Amino acid sequence: MEMNWLIIFIAALVPLVIGFVWYNPKVFGNAWMAGSGMTEESMKGNNMTLVMILSFVFSFMLAIIMHPIAIHQFGLFSLLENQPGMHDNPITNPDWNALMPKYADNFRTFKHGVLHGVIAALFFFLPTYGTMALYERRGFKYIAINVGYWAVSLGIMGGLISQFK
Q: In 93, 106, 111, 153, which residue has its Cα 20 to 30 A from 49's Cα atom?
C-alpha cells in the first residue's frame, strides 16, 4: 500500500498553519503564555528558522504515522504482509486482489479521517500533556489549549490523508 507523499507533505504543514492561528495572542496565545510561564521577552532570541524547520520535520513524522492510523486498509496490508509473494508484488497477491476491490474505499472520507485524528490526539497527546502538566504544576487551561491544538491539527491531518488516495 503506497502513501500519497504529496498529501503527507501537505498534512505536515497543517500543524504549522493551525499553530500560527491557535497560539496567536488574539486566540489562545496569551492564555498559553500565562499557563506555560512564558513571556514575550523570554521568547525573543529563539532561532525561529530552526524552530520552524524542526516543527515541520516533527509534523512530517506525525503525518507519516497518521497514514496507518486513518486508513483501515493499511491494517489489511499488515495482515497479509507475511503471505507468500506479498513483498514481491502485493498487486499480484490473490488475497489482496480478492479483498481490495470490495474494501479499498471503505472509510476513506475526510470525516472518518478527522475522527481518527481526534482519537489519536486524545489517546496520545492528552496523556502526554496531562502527565507533564501534573509534574510541572500546570493548570487545566494549559492542557486544554495544547491538547485542543493537537486534536484540531491531527483531525485535519487525518482527514486529508484519509480523503485523498
A: 153
Q: Residue with C-alpha cell 516533527?
A: 58
Which DSSP category does 61 fall into? H
Domain coverage including residue 143: 5-71+107-163
Report residue 114 as a C-alpha cell.
478527522
Q: Which of 155, 165, 152, 143 lies closest to 31 in space, CA to CA?
A: 143
The answer to whether position 9 is within a domain reads yes
Q: How many domains does the chain have?
A: 1
Cα 77 → chain centroid = 21
CA nearest to 95, candidates 117, 110, 113, 78: 78
**pLDDT tens figures, 24-54:** 999 999 999 999 888 888 878 778 899 999 9
Residue 60 lies in a domain: yes
**Amino acid at residue number 149:** Y
Q: What is the pTM of this model?
A: 0.83
- Cα–Cα distance list, 32 to 75, 133, 141, 163 (Å): 37, 13, 8, 32
DSSP secondary structure string for all residues of 88-129: T-GGG-HHHHHHHHHHTTTT-SHHHHHHHHHHHIIIIIHHHH
CA distance 74 to 67: 8
Is the predicted pLDDT of residue 131 greater than 70, yes or no?
yes
